[in-house]
């Protein structure tokens, strides 16, 4: 089969012929239809310091996908050939305290598909049945392909109640944009989305933002006045990984406000802890998604009218992956998809 492989310890990816994966008795073999390019894949492509420390050379990359079941192991009795599925990208140990308690998203020993386990940018991917999510038949296939980052958005956006609340989202990348749509759907009042990239901000209003704010030219405080907000934001979703964005968020929260941190900074971040303490702000770290409550929530939110399709701005044949990766890295795109049926 064809697969996108990190074949050499340098920048780049290589579309190669590799053996099809074999499956064990508990595994599901999936024919990949469409995949989404994530920031993680861009790091692996450019072979930055994180990728060099983390990713083994020779790995098939990629973790955002939708596909169709083509074979199942002898222990698998609840997936059938032809089922439309995606995979939860975190392989959990099943034995640590959190796993044993059913809190698999808190596993102490997760491994990542396409990071340190064979990934999904390929014609076929094999996964343990416990990592497979069957989609409802009415799901849009492009949206199904991005259930992984959509799940990051949902898990973060619903970390705290948002009904009637004013929400600040820093970072209008694909995840921040989807989070805007989610909190809007969940009943937030004002949804202010910030970025420093005008192309990204253009997508924020169609995704449900009340205000799309370029913080290079206008302050969050000014916007609060325009919106006649009295006391600051109730909920903050940090989705940029940028330290300045986080500091601006802390400075603009209401007393008792709640912050969920998804964006991953590249270095240590200095924060005004006095403000967090004296203003009684809750800060919560978010990693991944909840298995599988987030997947269920995504499904029913789509069925009750949530639309995240405007975040998908580009589609390429998998063979045009170089152009697709360049587009995703340019900052002038939302979500970029690869079509594995059009190789
Ligand atoms: P992205 O890089 O596409 O988007 C980040 C956005 O933040 C960009 O549009 C960028 O212009 C913007 N930004 C930069 N500086 C800013 C500033 N000062 N103020 C406001 N915005 C600013 O990333 P994404 O794919 O949407 O993911 C969002 C973040 O979440 C990334 O940091 C990513 O690494 C992280 N992430 C975390 C998890 C997790 O499980 N915790 C999972 C996936 C992604
Ligand atoms: Zn575990």
Description of the structure:
- The strands form 4 sheets. Strands 3, 5, 6, 9, 10, 17 and 18 form a 7-stranded mixed beta sheet that branches. A 6-stranded parallel beta sheet has the order 13-12-11-14-15-16, with helices on both faces.
- The longest helix is centred in the middle third of the chain and has 12 residues.
- The chain is globular.
- The chain folds into 2 domains: 180 residues, Medium-chain alcohol dehydrogenases, catalytic domain (Quinone Oxidoreductase, Chain A, domain 1), CATH 3.90.180; 134 residues, 3-Layer(aba) Sandwich (Rossmann fold).
- Strand 15, helix 10 and strand 16 form a beta-alpha-beta unit.
- Helix 5 crosses helix 6 and helix 5 crosses helix 11.
- The protein is α/β, with parallel strands linked by helices.
- The relative contact order is 0.15.
- The protein starts with a strand and ends with a strand.
- The model has no long low-confidence stretch (mean pLDDT 97).
- The chain is built from 12 helices and 18 strands.
- The structure holds nicotinamide-adenine-dinucleotide and zinc ion.
- Nicotinamide-adenine-dinucleotide (NAD) binds next to helix 6, strand 12 and helix 9.
Walk me through the topology:
Blueprint: E1 2-6, E2 14-17, E3 27-36, H1 39-46, H2 49-54, E4 59-60, E5 64-72, E6 84-87, E7 90-91, H3 97-100, E8 111-112, E9 124-128, E10 132-134, H4 141-145, H5 147-157, E11 167-170, H6 174-185, E12 191-195, H7 198-202, E13 211-214, H8 220-226, E14 233-238, H9 243-251, E15 253-261, H10 273-278, E16 282-285, H11 293-303, E17 312-317, H12 321-329, E18 335-339
Parallel strand pairs: 11-12, 11-14, 12-13, 14-15, 15-16, 17-18
Antiparallel strand pairs: 1-2, 1-4, 3-5, 3-9, 3-18, 5-6, 6-10, 7-8
Helix pairs in contact: 5-6, 5-11
The chain binds nicotinamide-adenine-dinucleotide and zinc ion.
Nicotinamide-adenine-dinucleotide (NAD) is lined by residues 39, 152, 170-176, 194-197, 200, 215, 239-242, 244-245, 262-264, 286-288.
């Amino acid at each position: 089969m064809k697969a996108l492989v990190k074949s050499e310890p340098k920048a780049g990816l290589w579309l190669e012929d590799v053996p099809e994966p074999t499956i064990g008795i508990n595994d599901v073999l999936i024919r990949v239809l469409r995949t989404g390019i994530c920031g993680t894949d861009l790091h692996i492509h450019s072979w930055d310091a994180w990728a060099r420390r983390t990713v083994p050379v020779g790995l098939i990359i990629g973790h955002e996908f939708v596909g169709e079941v083509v074979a199942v192991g002898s222990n698998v009795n609840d997936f059938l050939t032809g089922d439309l599925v995606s995979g939860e990208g975190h392989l959990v140990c099943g034995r640590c305290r959190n796993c044993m308690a059913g809190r698999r998203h808190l596993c102490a020993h997760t491994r990542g598909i396409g990071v340190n386990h064979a990934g999904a940018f390929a014609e076929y991917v094999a996964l343990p049945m416990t990592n497979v999510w069957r989609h409802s038949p009415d799901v849009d296939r492009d949206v199904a392909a991005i259930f992984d980052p959509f799940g990051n958005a949902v898990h973060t956006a619903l970390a705290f109640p948002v009904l009637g609340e004013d929400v600040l989202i820093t970072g209008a990348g694909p995840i921040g944009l989807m989070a805007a749509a989610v909190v809007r759907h969940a009943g937030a009042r004002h949804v202010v989305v910030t970025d420093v990239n005008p192309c990204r901000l253009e997508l924020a209003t169609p995704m449900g933002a009340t205000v799309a704010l370029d913080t290079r030219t206008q302050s969050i405080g000014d916007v609060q006045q325009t919106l006649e907000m009295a006391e600051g934001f109730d909920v903050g979703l940090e989705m940029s990984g940028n330290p300045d964005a986080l500091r601006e968020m802390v400075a603009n929260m209401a007393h008792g406000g709640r912050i969920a941190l998804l964006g991953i900074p590249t270095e240590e971040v200095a924060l005004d802890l006095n403000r967090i303490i004296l203003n009684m702000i809750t800060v919560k770290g978010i990693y991944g998604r909840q298995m599988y409550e987030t997947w269920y929530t995504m499904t029913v939110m789509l069925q009750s009218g949530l639309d995240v399709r405007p975040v998908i701005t580009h589609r390429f044949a998998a063979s045009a992956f170089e152009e697709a990766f360049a587009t995703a890295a340019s900052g002038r795109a939302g979500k970029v998809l690869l079509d594995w049926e059009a190789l």
